[in-house]
Amino acid sequence: MQSRVTTPRTLLAARRQAFGPGMAEPPPPILRSWERCAALGLDFGQRPRVEPLGSAEMRAAFDRSEALRQTCRPEIEALHAEAQATGSLVILTDADGLILDTLGSDAFAGRAAQVALRPGVPWSESLTGTNAIGTALVERRPAEVRGAEHYFEPHRILSCAAMPILGADGTVLGVLDLTGPAAIHQGHALGLVGLAVAAIEHRLLDTVPTGCEVLRLHRDAGLLGTPREGVLVFEGRRLVGANRHGLALLGLSWGDLGTEQAGGHGGDTAPGPLSLRDATGAPLYGRLQGVPARRRSTVETARQNPAALIPEGPILDPATEKLLARAVRLIDAGIPVVVEGETGTGKEVFARAAHAACARAQKPFVAVNCAALPETLIEAELFGYEPGAFTGAARHGAKGLLRQAEGGLLFLDEIGDMPLSLQSRLLRALQEREVLPVGGTRPIPVDFALICATHRDLSRMVEEGAFRADLFYRIAPYRVRLAPLRERPDRLALVRGLWARSDGPARGVSLSPDCEAALAEAEWPGNLRQLAACLKALAALAEAGEVLGPADLPEGVACRPAPAPVPRREEAGRLDVLAQDAMRAALAAHGGNVSRAARSLGISRSTLYRRCLTERAGV
């Protein structure tokens, strides 16, 4: 039979005979895939011969893909609700089509497992025929395969939509897929997957590589900073990275990576807002981040001035810059640092700057919000777990956040909210430099630098028994306090620096001097975070070219009352004489009646009586 199925047309004829004459002709990508499958000698009438990896191979494959799994986790969890509602599965694979994770409808997961759609099974086109995962990998573009469009007959129970996840250099990192029963048409599936992949690829370009500049652009200034913006990475004038949106906006392709761009950015433009035009002359709004390679090309240069690595304006004042330099020296010496400060003072920004300037800058920065993790899961999240360690655990286990920070820096935010029961385990891990995964029997060595942060008073918590004293002394040999915004002397410069990096200047929006002064003098209980959010809101609401004044400030941004002027000594003396004259005149006008004189002056009888006695006594 296989010898007769050699072209898409003969294959289509055979499938019409098998499935009925009503089968429509598939789109060109499906026909191309069928042709490739037929050329490989696959028999569509048979069940594909695929076997899951062995336990050792599976563990090695999952370890290689741990970074991808963590990067995709927010989008997979966001799609989880959609998958449950539609009886579908969210599927993540590696670059070879090996299924790493499935999440969604338990009922459909059982049906999918009957056709080997489960973790540890490869779904490349060469093994499992035409399917959304495998075809998307071959075509390097989104793919949708419904029902009978699958090459192998057993797979026609599926309707799949998949999209490759591309790295900044165009390399395929994996595939995100949404698969459901073929009987239910899910016309929105490919759109949801596309939005999720765009967010993942945008997150991969969050940081500016050392010695590079990152250009972020879009036709709509309001979409800068969102997953829909275009991103281009330049090393000098050479384009070294991008996302799909960035290439499309400038009419480029992945083949242009590594080439010099005549209109590219090689350090001639200062970081900040830009007004650009595409090849057709249409306006583009952009923002340039990073420092030109010729001015800062090595980590050592950054270590000499770590505060310059902070991208969002003058976050640190000179005093805190000195603290940052000290923190970097401590980290390089293997000594932990605790950063204290109110919510929004920039504790994580400080930690990231320290990481970027220390000797571990080329290794991971792993941030953990101890207050955000459920108490029942925080142990597994930090230390990892073995397969089957608890109900709901992934089949292949997980490394844990401490092991993900291997060689780099672990940032434990809100350490004061860590449960007491877990503090002893963390202390042991720090002392022994090894972790024991949940359900494991063999400790695993770890190596990372540590920065902790908190808005609480840890020393008082130790006194009250709410925080372990031994852990406190282990993590806090050096403590950094970040001042709240109201105590900083550079508020006006801070307002101007943050505004320059907002969307406002790119659209010709400016702040009047009175508005700048009001922002600088306002009470900011949320500190830098609140100020930055306020400036973003002002920029978003303003019309192009508008000059904003104090009246444009949002309600609740209350200015601090101006302090009452302190009179000079000679002025105070003159005021005292005038007061005494007024009281004598009032007493004379009321015939010496103290009560009536006091009422006429608007003061109390005791005050008038006391001042009169003081005058008579010559004091």
TrEMBL record:
An example molecular function term from Gene Ontology annotations: ATP binding
Matches recorded under InterPro entries: AAA+_ATPase, AAA_lid_NorR, GAF, GAF-like_dom_sf, Homeodomain-like_sf, HTH_Fis, P-loop_NTPase, Sigma_54_int
Segments traversing the membrane: none
Record has Ligase as a keyword: no
Pfam families xref list: AAA_lid_14, GAF, HTH_8, Sigma54_activat
Keywords from the named record: Activator, ATP-binding, DNA-binding, Nucleotide-binding, Transcription, Transcription regulation, Two-component regulatory system
Any Gene Ontology biological process: regulation of DNA-templated transcription
PANTHER family for the chain: TRANSCRIPTIONAL REGULATORY PROTEIN
Entry protein name: ATPase AAA
The organism of origin for this protein: Methylobacterium tarhaniae
Lineage: Bacteria, Pseudomonadati, Pseudomonadota, Alphaproteobacteria, Hyphomicrobiales
